[in-house]
Structure formats: structure tokens, C-alpha cells
Amino acid sequence: MPDNTCRARDEAFWQTFADRYDLQPGPINLENGYFGRMSRTVVEEYHRNIELINRSNSVYARQRFEHADSVKIRAQLAGLVGVPADSVALTTNASQGLQSLIRNYNRLQPGDQVLICDLEYDTVKSAMRWLATHRGVEVIEIDHAHPVSFDSLLTTYRETFARYPRLKLMALTHVTHRTGLVMPVQAIAAAAKEHGIDVILDGAHALGQLEFDLDELGIAFAAYNLHKWIGAPLTLGFLYIAPERLADIDPDMGEMHFPVTDIRSRTPHSTPNIPALLTLPLVLEEHWAMGGSVAKGTRLNYLRNLWVRAVRELPGIEVMTPDDPRLYCGITSMRFTAHADQQAMAERLLSDYNLFTVVRNGAACGPCIRITPGLTTAAADMMLLTSALTQLR
């Protein structure tokens, strides 16, 4: 049995990591998909950095951070996803990066078509719809039939590509925030390439949960968060543009602080959260010490499977995310089929069982309750969830 699989079940091992986080008394948090906690040591480092920047002010920021420390940090982030340092630019989050990529993609002509699906993040949907007004393109919107499979997802996209020959650009979410579905990105991107369609990948929930290679995935444009599964402070993310495709993304609204050949011109120029950025070397050190995305993802999948396998076949419960290991991660959604109001049921989970979850709407398959364990979640928490779901169904 692989070491990571054995270790995922080792509650004592993971408790040593959980002990590094300060938790406020209250509900058991099963909504860790919003943002992740910083470890105690990262919080302390963040505080030190705030004090440093407050003392040194623009002297440090202009003399060291802009020309040295920020360059090293970008190189570390590039190493996190295995790409050249000059192919990443800092952003405040994945949404900002995705908006920059979408609005500055310059290969669209009036009459071209762009594609979104029901599972995309709302900010991504609105950005793609913005293109209709400002670029004269047609937005094609598709829904994924439920339940999905690897083959059905790929078939839906292949049929869509054939049906709409003027498609030039599509949004694709690696891990969908509504249900936790992991999209078969490599297969979809390969099919899109056959039809001359570029993909902008939303990797907000993927980084830190999934092990991936952008070259193997066939992705030239992507954006990521660092505050979900990497363990960084809020306001940190980055975008990726394959070096050979940089010219296909214009400088952001004429940005001129950097040369047109510098990827940093593809994001808005502003004063960044320097104290937060300065925590990243420690954040990444702790990420790798924990075992990186492989170890984190295996642990989260183990916790997910504890409750999913216990309730999937129970009458009154529908698990929205498939069990194909290619299509799921730690995030998984369900609904109570005997109850129309899922929000009311999420409130029952909180009031009756002290379990905090969140309802997600917007998917064609209907509203669902998203359940997301985290790195401080114990197997016992999932057993409590299983008991609660069994009783409430």
C-alpha cells in the first residue's frame, strides 16, 4: 500500500499537524473550501512582517521587495507548479487572475463564440459574458447532465465543440466549487485543441489538493489561489501564461509599469500586501514538509470517503459527486432528497449537530450542501457527520 495512503489514515500523524493551528471554540468546520487556516507559525511570521513593513515603509519596499524578494517569491511559486519563473505573475486571488486573462485575451473577433458551463465560478461566468458586450462575441452556455462520468463530460464537450464551430475560447474549472467535481482537464483540453479552442483554467481549488503538470494538462492560461490549500494569508494568488503564448494576452488595460515582454504587465499594478507575500517562503516550506499536494490530497480524499461511502446508498441522500477517483477530491456535495430546502437542512446540521456546512446554488443539478474537510479535520468528525446525515435523511 502506498505510504501516502497509509499515512492518510494515521490520525496521530495528522493530529501533529492539526496541533499547529489555533482553532476558535465553536462548530466543527466542514466548510474549509472558503479559505484555509494559516498555521500558528505562519500567523506569527505574518505579524512580524507587518511590523517590518510598518517600520521600514517604502524604503524596504522600493529598495528590496520590488527588485529582489518579489522575484525570489515568484520563482518559488513557479516551482510549486513546475513552470518557468517568468511565466507567473502575482495576483490577489484566482478571480483577479482569471478576469485579467479573460478581458485581455486578444485573439477574439466579433462573431466568435466563447464557452462556459453551469459549474463555473460566477465571477468567471460574468467575465465571459462581459466579452459579449465589449468584444461582440457570442457566449455559449452548457449544462452538465447529472450524474456525470468521465466519458459523459468529455462527450458533452466534444459534441459542443462540433456544434459550435466558431468557438475560440472556453473557461474550464479544474475543481468545481459547487460540487467538488474534478474535471478531466487533460482530455477536455486536448479535444479543445483539435478544434482550435483555447482554454483558460480556473485552478482556485486545485492547487494544494491535486498533483498536476500544466504541460501534461495542455494548459497555457490558468489562475490559482494560495489561501485555500497552500496555507497562505488571504489576498494571495497568481496567474500563469505559457511563455510562448504571452503575446496572446494584452497588457492589462494598457499597463506600462513593466515591458510588454514581462508577464507582470498582464495584471493591474498596485501596492501589494507585502507582509502576506513575505510569509510565502515559510508557507511553502510547511506545505512541502507536510508532504505537498499528494499527501494533503490523499488525506482529504480519505476523510471524504469516510462519510460518502457510509451514506451514498441510503434512501433520502443523494451524493452529487461521483466516486471515480479521477473525478473527486476532498470537496463533495450532497442533498437531502426528501427536503426541498437544502439551506434549512444545512441549518439543522449546525443547530442540531454543531456541523458547519454551506449550500451551493447555480448548478443545473440543483442546490446542494457542500462538505469540505480540512487539515484540522479528524476522522471522528466525519463519523459525526455520517450519524447526522443518517438521522436527518
From TrEMBL:
Source organism: Pseudomonas reinekei
Entry keywords, A to Z: Aminotransferase, Lyase, Pyridoxal phosphate, Transferase
Gene Ontology molecular functions: lyase activity; transaminase activity
Aminotransferase class V domain: residues covered: 58-368
Entry annotated with the keyword Lyase: yes
Protein name: Aminotransferase class V-fold PLP-dependent enzyme
Organism superkingdom: Bacteria
InterPro entries hit by this protein: Aminotrans_V_dom (IPR000192), PyrdxlP-dep_Trfase (IPR015424), PyrdxlP-dep_Trfase_major (IPR015421), PyrdxlP-dep_Trfase_small (IPR015422)
UniProt cross-references to Gene3D superfamilies, sorted A to Z: Aspartate Aminotransferase, domain 1, Type I PLP-dependent aspartate aminotransferase-like (Major domain)
